Amino acid sequence: MSPRFFAVALILVAALPVRAGTAGMITYDTLPYGTLDAPLILRTFLPDPGLDDTVMAHHGRGARTSEYSPEIGKDIPGEVVPLQGVPAAIAVNHGPVLSYVFDTTEGRLLYAWQGGFLDMYPYWGEKEMGTRLFDYVPRLVGTLFYKAAGKHPLEIGGRSVSEAGAPRFVGYDLVDRQPTFIVRHGRHTVRTRIRPVPGQHALRLEISAEPAAALAYRTEYSGLGVKTESKGDGTLVLMLSGPSLGAFEGYSRQVTIKEASIAAGELFYRNYACAVCHSTDGSMSHGPTWAGLFGRERILADGSKIAADDAYLLESIKDPNAKIVQGFAPNFMPPYTKLGELEYQSLLLFIKSIRPGR
What we know:
Blueprint (H helix, E strand, L loop, with lengths): L4 E2 L9 E4 L20 E7 L18 E5 L4 E7 L2 E2 L1 E8 L5 E5 L4 E7 L3 E2 L1 H4 L14 E9 L6 E3 L2 E2 L7 E8 L2 E8 L2 E9 L5 E9 L4 E3 L7 E8 L2 E7 L4 E4 L12 H10 L25 E3 L5 E3 L2 H9 L22 H13 L5
Antiparallel strand pairs: 1-6, 2-3, 3-7, 4-5, 7-8, 8-9, 9-11, 10-11, 11-21, 12-13, 12-18, 14-15, 15-16, 16-17, 17-20, 19-20, 22-23
């Protein structure tokens, strides 16, 4: 499989986050999130988690180019190496429940994950920064559970839409704040709506085609579970579920600390997107609040009880599904297994410092 790249020198584009029903820039946050009912829609450069050439059949490729000096107005020794990524696809986030990427060039769902969204730090930088990293490709945050493979899985009248030639992306409609993607495949206009399935590594596809014809979904990804929920003339609703294909922790920031501290733990709480699911004021979210958490007895999903001590908290950071608290769903949080010992200890100190009602 050859990697896909794009040449930054040849592309000028802004990453525009749009909350469904609004327009314009909405945040300086490098870890932006939507919600289950009001997803965040972001069209920008996106990571390539290892998509094969057949999936990306209609994409071009960037090429190495000579390094150019604007100061002297000519090329200088050296090369500019294209960055690996997917240009100008659409990423959608429903909070930790579901994130996915729909590609406008291929007219299909590329990949989906849970437990986070995109870390925009390498592209946006921080609000206080005077310069950017000029990386342009955000990093995934969360657990990948679906990745496209092979030709387009949608069949119309018994034939893959891949046989209809290059698709043409028409745009998307917002229906109840949820995007419905519209793509022309030959003489058919296909509408695709992608919805979360809370509590599972899964998503729901709602597909319709005009003019109406028999629809089928045949994937070359052997590990994917495909459950047809309803089927009609020109309509198809199915659920896709898959195992964990990898956990991603965002962009690796070089934060150097000499000792564990509450202040460092609060920084990591923000940098690693813990705030998306864990409040510090006692309010409910997708994960248990950290307010007054340390030392409290926890009732787990199986009815057993455990004290929230150092060992429990560390295990929950490194293996979130090991002990699920009653009333909360599994699979939202990716495992954080690559932190340094001082980072783990700082997070513990920060959690211990949060009193009830903070």
